[in-house]
Amino acid sequence: MAIEQTLSIIKPDAVGKDAIGTILSRFESNGLRVKAMKMVRMTREQAQAFYAVHADKPFYNDLVAFMISGPVVVAILEGEDAIARNRELMGATNPQEAEPGTIRADFATTIDANAVHGSDSPETAVTETAFFFNRLEIFDRE
Ligand code: ATP
Ligand code: MG
Fold first, then answer.
1. Which residues of the chain have a pLDDT value below 70?
2. Alpha-carbon torsion 108, 110, 113, 116, what sign?
3. How far apart are CA 97 and CA 56, in angstroms?
């Protein structure tokens, strides 16, 4: 077990459903503490850069269009095994396959608009947190 940081995004569909508070509450009540947070509306160029790893996938253009369709809430979460814990709370990428009680099962119905993003490794967590936040925006919560 290690203390990790991970990047969370509450995607435009969940923001549009007024689920920000409920989703943040799930993080906070499951050992993930908010170290940084803001609401942003990404430009197309920013969303393309953020999801550059998927640039060759057939769903890339739709994914970018969806991510800029409205504001998102980005946050840095910290806790024991934060990367895996966040992904457990999120549930499977396809909400139809997500375990009952997970965020995607409860707030999403399609793989295109699946409520939340979470970093998938320590390496992506570092690049993704730096993508959205500078040092002055990240707070020591000890
Ligand atoms: P995220 O990166 O958003 O946390 P993830 O790590 O569970 O999700 P990835 O494989 O990284 O899933 O895919 C990134 C996003 O691209 C997914 O959240 C989903 O919205 C979209 N996506 C992935 N696979 C498909 C697909 N087969 N069809 C349509 N959209 C997809
Ligand atoms: Mg991913």
1. none
2. positive
3. 24
117 is catalytic: yes
Side chain identity, residue 2: A
25 lines ligand 1 (CB under 6 A): no
For ligand 1, atom 9: residue with the closest CA: 93
Joined together, the tokens standing for residue 116 give 């939340």
Phi, psi of 79 (to 5 degrees): 170, 180
| pLDDT digits 0-9 by tens, 54-66 | 999 999 999 999 9
User: Is the beta carbon of 92 within 6 A of some atom in ligand 1?
Assistant: no
> What DSSP line would sit under 11-60, residue for residue?
-HHHHHTT-HHHHHHHHHTTT-EEEEEEEE---HHHHHHHTGGGTTSTTH
Side-chain half-sphere exposure of 74, counting CA atoms within 13 A: 20
Please state, in angstroms and rounded to a whole number, the distance separating the CA atoms of residues 39 and 123: 24
Q: 31: phi > 0 → left, psi -120 to 50 → alpha, else beta; which?
A: left
Structural contact between residues 104 and 95, judged by C-beta atoms closer than 8 angstroms:
yes
**pTM of the predicted structure, to 2 decimals:** 0.97
